[in-house]
Amino acid sequence: MGKGLYISKSVGITLIVLAVAAVATIIALSVVFHNEKSRTVEKPQINETDQWKSYRLPGTLSPQYYNITLWPRLVPDANGMYIFTGHSGVAFTCVKETGLILIHSNKLNYTLTPEGHHAKLTGLEGAEAPAIKKTWLEVETQYLVIQLSETLQVGKIYWLYMEFQGELANDLGGFYRSEYFENGVKKVVATTQMQPTDARKAFPCFDEPAMKAVFHMTLIHPLDTVALSNGMDKGTETITLNNQQVLQTKFDPTEKMSTYLLAFVVSDFTFIRSPAGAEVLIRIWARREAIEAGQGDYALTITGNILDFFQNYYNSKYPLSKSDQIALPDFSAGAMENWGLITYRETALLYDPIMSSNGDKEWVTIVISHELAHMWFGNLVTMKWWNDLWLNEGFATYASYLGADYAQPSWNLKDLMVLKEIHKAFAADALATSHPLSSLEEDVKTPAQISALFDTITYSKGGAVLRMLSEFLSEPVFARGLSAYLKQFAYGNTVYTDLWGKLQEVVDADPEVNLPATITEIMNRWILQMGFPVVTIDTQTGSITQNHFLLDADTKPSRSSAYNYEWFVPIKWMKSGTAMGQHWLLEKTATHDPMKTNSEWVLANVNVSGFYRVNYDPQNWERLLSQLSTDHSDIPVISRAQIVDDAFNLARAKIISTTVALNTTKFLSEEKEYMPWEAAVKNLNYFFLMFDRSEVYGALQKYLRGKVQPLVEYFRNVTSDWTEIPSSHTDQYNQVNAITLGCTTEVEGLADLTKAWFRQWMENPDKNPIHSNMKTTVYCNAIAAGGAAEWEFGWKMYKNSSNAAEADKLMYGLSCTKKPWLLNRYLDYSLDPDMIRKQDATYVIVYIAGNVIGQPLAWDFIRAKWNYILNDYGGSLSFSRLILGVTKRFSTEFELEQLQQFKEENVAAGFGSAAQAVDQAIETTKANMKWVSENKQLVMQWLTENSA
Ligand SMILES: *[C@@H]1O[C@H](CO)[C@@H](O)[C@H](O)[C@H]1NC(C)=O
Ligand SMILES: *[C@@H]1O[C@H](CO)[C@@H](O)[C@H](O)[C@H]1NC(C)=O
Ligand SMILES: *[C@@H]1O[C@H](CO)[C@@H](O)[C@H](O)[C@H]1NC(C)=O
Ligand SMILES: *[C@@H]1O[C@H](CO)[C@@H](O)[C@H](O)[C@H]1NC(C)=O
Ligand SMILES: *[C@@H]1O[C@H](CO)[C@@H](O)[C@H](O)[C@H]1NC(C)=O
Ligand SMILES: [Zn+2]
């Protein structure tokens, strides 16, 4: 699945409930023999009682192919319900003798046979099917259970046929409904999201990734619509069904693949396509308005390139004749890699040159690349079970940067992966409550347990660890191993050790590669234990030591590790600008004499090629800081960003003093590059939150103004007084950083600039002069500086906008006003669905809480309305995000008391899905109080001493 949102909001809430229920009902699968009198004695009967209580299929049957016909209704029935009807058959082989058929089925109603059964069983290729004894649905484990009067014969093929109907709900899972308006007319799209366990909600199927089969799809659909599926359509004919004229579209059979990769869509969308004659037909589908406005053009341009890149990289041809990509108005994840029909949310596929920012464009590029990487890694070769999901998603995350870099070579995307994935992974994995990348198969059984794996660790840490592997093997060796792996396991399923095995073969055959241990020995430490090390280098003695890095020094890891929280660490390092190659740390502590020095600076983990943080002895910190101040360009740009990020995080963990961290920001007055600035801005954000209501704020503003002023001047110059846009992608990002931080620190002229732009727009609403890259920050700053007129104008444009990306930027900007009455009114709007869509309500409240003036208003607001919020927004709000967002500034005794009181007063009403978040907020508030008391004086003094 694509990135961004791993689980839809409504799913997230129900999962917790399911997980609790599941623990209570996990029952070990028991296979024992029993002595039934009526049967022949030589053939013992298998006791299959209770097999349907197990969440895993018994492995007795193996599907070969399915024939599926579905008919979604795009208008509600007499009861106001949207439904689909269908029938399907599955040909399966019996691989172990059994008298029981378990096939997944969820929320489907069946047409019973004259005998009162849910299904019909016949033999294929001469096999004779036993009679059905009894059938029923198991709701908890999501099975259709079919008990037979006699057993199926090993090696024989059978055909199981069913007729059923389901709801085409707007629940974003299985076969579901998405709606939008076009020219004032409501349109309905029927579409799918099967991963991980919702194919069973569309038709009965053996819904496990290793149960690969071929799918023959047929869709029945209204006359004015088009139907799409994984395979190319074989033709559409008009038929009469239930006295209605409808279209029937049949599709080419799919490759042999997993159920979770199936997709089908009925819509009245239109498309653009690659030129005739191309080897693979590429089509981009979306709402008519969007395609006609050219919003699919960018995706079409880059898809062919990226597909070519992956065919070369994997040394494996794309096996399908077409690649459809479709943008859907309602979609839970970022995108989904269905083989041949990739589905996206609109912001992940559509790009509007005027309305979209360079960040929006980058997102489209990365997501397309991520999904195309899955065509091989995931689709052609699939994990055996969900416990190895990290391999699929981690790989797609890593490879997405390679494919996107090929499409946009000037964007430095391979470097940006450090900011976008690795820093995110560090943050998640530094908590005592983190978890290992790889789970045990028996720990992942229920749909809730499976869905919970779609998290930052799986995606970002998975990507970071595979990038490290590729770095120490070198990219060509890694790619050769992948290619061999894909060749051997094509159309099959694997576990992660299969990949280690193939890579090891390539390593063994290559005399150039020297590793201190096997791939398995090295990599298992990174995937079977949670967390990552901080490596401390003492240049006085040459000693290197590793320790498990935890952000909160007072916590202990939530689980034990077979490897004692030690890793095999590849250390690429340099000494005063000279690359020194790679050294392996294989013990808790070791000595490497070349690292001993008392004059040169040592820099380790160059370009963050390994997944760990680095600390040094104070003298080496001094030497690094001094190099940054004299000529920072001697240190590679990624490492400059990493020094800042490591120092601030080591300081939070109390491993080094906050002064060292602050010292790493001094060189920023000379820095023009985006990555170091972005790392600093992210880390300083915590200082703003903790201090923006105290005297420290003035000192912080003054210090940073001195740092950012030269950057503002630089961009003013580069852009000919803000009339142009810098040509480089990362410069475009850093220009936004300059304006945002410049406004926050009151660099002269910037407030007037943003106000003037906004005023120009107000005077001519049809012509917005603000470049899309800068809209978020300009809207925010102009509305903050302005009054009611600016706010009302912004609100009007928000309500009139038909572009989701533009509306989001305005929605944020409106939260920046400094006028309490406007903020309070906006808070009221947030819970009025006619004003703010329900799905956006939490965002608005949290944005307002991000504003130092809005913070107490938002806190009062949610306390006053808690019962109402809980009852009316149950399914559509993320309560955790709400609680954590509104309390993230809390750092005083008084706020802690209020929070505790809030918890006590609402025990009866409850906190919905936010019970854990309330406790977390209390913990965080205490940690913040401690940090502020330990650091306030010191920070104040440092800022005062270091301000120009
Ligand atoms: C089959 O196994 C179940 C539980 O494992 C047991 O309760 C039941 O008595 C067994 N049935 C027969 C017929 O042996
Ligand atoms: C399934 O569909 C395919 C393609 O239409 C057809 O050739 C085959 O006979 C069908 N199988 C069964 C058992 O109906
Ligand atoms: C399935 O049957 C249940 C129980 O009769 C009913 O409530 C539900 O609406 C039915 N769903 C569909 C899609 O027909
Ligand atoms: C921070 O920098 C100042 C001035 O360069 C220096 O005197 C001080 O020792 C540094 N502090 C630390 C902890 O490195
Ligand atoms: C502005 O640009 C000019 C030439 O392009 C350069 O000489 C000057 O140093 C620049 N000024 C700043 C502040 O970057
Ligand atoms: Zn993915």
TrEMBL record:
Zn(2+) binds at residues 370, 374, 393. It is a single-pass type II membrane protein. Its cofactor is Zn(2+). Its EC number is 3.4.11.-. GO terms for biological process: peptide catabolic process; proteolysis. The keyword rRNA-binding does not apply. Homodimer. This is Aminopeptidase. It comes from Astyanax mexicanus. The lineage of its organism: Eukaryota, Metazoa, Chordata, Craniata, Vertebrata.
